[in-house]
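re: that complex we talked abt at group meeting.

here r the seqs, copy pasted straight from the sheet so there may be weird spacing, ignore it
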Amino acid sequence: MALLEVRGLEVRFPMRQGELTALRDVSFSLDKGERLGIVGESGAGKSVAAFAILNLISRPGYISNGEIIFEGSDLAKMNARQLRSIRGNRINMIFQDPMMTLNPVLTIGTQMIECLRTHMNMSAGQAREKAIDKLRQVQIPSPEERIDQYPHELSGGMRQRVVIAIALLTDPSVIIADEPTTALDVTIQAEIMELLLALCENSDVALMLITHDLGVVSQVTQRTVVMYAGRVVEEGPTRQIIENARHPYTHGLIAALPERTNPGMRLNQIPGVMPSLAAIPPGCSFHPRCEHAMDVCRSELPDYVMDGGFRVACHWVAHREQQP
Amino acid sequence: MIAFLVKRFGQALVVMFVISLISFSIQDNLGDPLRELLGQSVSEAERQVLRDEMGLNDPFLEQYWRFLKKAVRGDLGNSYFFKRPALEVIMEKFPATMELVLGATLIILFLSIPIGVYCAINPRSWFTKVMMGMSIIGISIPVFLTAIMLIYLFSIALGWLPSFGRGETTMIGFWETGMLTWDGLVHLILPSVALSSIMLPLFIRLIRSEMMEVLEQDYIRFAWAKGLSRKRIWFLHALKNTLLPVITVGGVQIGTMIAYTILTETVFQWPGMGFLFLEAVNRVDTPLIIAYLIVVGVIFVITNTVVDLIYGLVNPTVRLAGGHS
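got the structure back, here u go
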């Protein structure tokens, strides 16, 4: 049985013009110690999905349908107290911008110790010891001094190490990392990613990595979920997705990787832009940008086609497979 | 820290110089001090002699220089009406005004923070809507009108509270306080409420809007993701960040409140500096007017310095230095 299973998740935002559906029928699962990548362009709903798992969607957004089964219980139905015992304890998050994630007026130590004191029965002294220990694990030099400093005294890379240390403090079973390296210098991105990967492997923590960078996904994750306009369009083992993507959108993402382009040539971008939530086209929401679009794509939402470890929502793929 | 204080002291000297120049230069425009000083029966010739004696006919700069030389030694001249050093007269009334400001400040402090925080956390509750509506009304009504309405309601209609004066006071050294007796405290209530009536709604709105902005920040979302208790997120993580800009604005407003004491003290016949100032204006008692303006200027400079010191203590990203600020 999966450690975390999301089934038919739907998230809505009530607006003045009516309700916007940010996530539609999103399902995926995460096994113990597994590393899952969630990819898509900006606005695909990756972050909403990540925040929805801990019921942390910004108001007025809410989960309108679906289940989030974690260790046998449904997070979507939990009350605030029950959720607090999961958040920051069993499922922890790493945010995108370490400059904004840490509270500027509290010391690193305060922000670490409060997690331990909230979730574990620890004395202030024990918690401090453990915090220093975790800072050492994320390779922060002289953690005994750093722990009493404020976030502004640390560089961006160091701050993200602190955030990773906070995420690991309570020995969680899942870490959800929302673009953990996007806001960092290119030179330290790889360093932070490697550190996160090593720490998750060592402690057997499941990692849900949300990113728009297929390159990172291919290096870190075992399975990949591709999202478009609030819906999962393709899911499968990462290696096979990279080598043999079925959905035209995934194709486009892979073709757009700079590594796939000869030097001096234009990058292969997908024509058009992701539709806004208020104006999602009928049928397959990708059809206006799709080179294989058929008549049926404009009117009917494609069902999932199962194929080995794959799951694809595309009329064109289904059509091709019916004609050997 | 010491560099900061030295720099502040330098700034204060410049500010005080400008205040003294401005307040000294208005004295010619207030009317003839001799009219109050002497009766109707004194002849014009005698008046001229007295003007020469007092140096009122000298050129402006000469008069100012004479004033400045004395002022540096703490002598701001004698009050024409009280025939005593003006600074001494002012300082006798200083405790009354400061206690009034203190009372208003306490009211603002203990009401604005809880109400502002509540309104930020529950933006849609009926209490928030009532508070926001009332605060608009509170800001719009002038202090003297609030004061008169308070007197009508609590002194005349209900008869609960005294409407004028300080009541029974006790002396502690030079400080005449009304805060040690029940009668003094009861007399303090209405004037303090009236004085706080403008600033309180302002602070509630300020704290609410700052807090709402802070609650949208990533670090607050991260705090929720850490599974912390609501109390800890609201009153530690969010409130500490909310209060930083509030301290800065608040410090300046406390200075402004001293200006409002003129109105409040007049309505409540409160024997403080503001009441004295208005009397001095009516009597064309220029030395007293100048002394008042200078004392208020000193209070402004001191409160701003203290506010900057507190801000430096609360905000770790600020280190007080003698450099640019």
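couple things i noticed - Chain A has two domains: 4-229, 236-271+282-324. The longest helix of chain A spans residues 186-203.
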